């Protein structure tokens, strides 16, 4: 029986591919000891146990954005976290470490290197983060989600996503999914989501464009984010066209939301780009204008294939959203073709590819 330790946490961007890879490993070899490493401050404490996977915790070592007292504490915190990671690797007699970047991965990478344990690196975004840049220097197994990701010796495998999403038949699930959101499946439906936390610029633009879209007969499933939804966000039925506006704070099962929709307006985080592409759901991407610009780069392969629309955050207002959505919705066949082009660009079996790499590494 082999043992694999997977490191990643903080956000869904790290935990989702970790869970997908872990499940693919166990599907390929149920005898494996597969354990995840995270911290107590991330959502991994909820989603990883919920996925049926064991979770070990280390202290978080985030890098401060500005110089100061916290920066001076980083070396001590890192040493503590590396020691904790080393104890986990020893306890599980790890044959390989699989890291998904972020502040959780760095201590585990360093502990694995000290113990000469093979490291498999997976980078989710088109532009890599600090932890994966460091690990790529001493790992011979560097996997990326998008072409042209600047990591030495990188191999393109795609982004691991849940099998339920990868195998989603949107057409077969359309009617029941739409009805589940109190939407008429016979009408064109726009899905709006800024991610688990929502996106204020997108939310504001959609609320401003809502009346024009409903008047055009386009229904809207608007996922505002739990922190953004208020009592004033109520369901609306247009008395003339019958189009519907349904605001929700959060969707437990995004497969249903994807199945219900004809078009999505969203950020371009790696997970969203890949999930919309793999499910052939056409999308208008509004990249988050922060970080190192990775969200705009994530969407580049789809833009190059004419498989999506990109709207800069600064231009995401009611008029632009209304114009883009109505233009796309007026030609259903062209919309479907756009989704199929997206599906052709992005691998849908990245979880299985990652599992195969890890199994080869541990022999």
Question: Your description of this structure?
Answer:
This protein is 45% helix and 15% strand. The protein has 363 residues and is an alpha/beta fold. The protein has two domains: 3-161 and 348-362, Rossmann fold; 168-345, Rossmann fold (3-Layer(aba) Sandwich), CATH 3.40.50. Helix 4 (102-114) packs parallel to helix 5 and helix 7 packs across helix 9. The radius of gyration is 21 Å and the shape is elongated. It starts with a strand and ends with a helix. 48% of the residues are buried. It is a peripheral membrane protein. Pathway: Cell wall biogenesis; peptidoglycan biosynthesis. It is an enzyme of class 2 (transferase). Residues 190-342 form the Glycosyl transferase family 28 C-terminal domain.
**How many domains comprise the coordinates?**
2
Oligomeric state of this protein: single chain
State the secondary-structure class. Answer: alpha/beta
CATH class of the largest domain: Alpha Beta
Average residue pLDDT: 94
What is this structure's SSE topology?
Layout: E1 3-7, H1 12-28, E2 33-38, H2 44-50, E3 55-57, H3 69-92, E4 96-99, H4 102-114, E5 119-123, H5 130-136, E6 141-144, E7 155-156, H6 163-166, H7 170-180, E8 189-193, H8 200-215, E9 219-223, E10 236-237, E11 244-248, H9 254-260, E12 263-266, H10 270-278, E13 283-285, H11 294-298, H12 300-304, E14 309-310, H13 318-329, H14 332-345, H15 350-362
Parallel strand pairs: 1-2, 1-4, 2-3, 4-5, 5-6, 6-7, 8-9, 8-12, 9-11, 12-13, 13-14
Antiparallel strand pairs: 10-11
Helix pairs in contact: 1-15, 3-4, 4-5, 7-9, 8-13
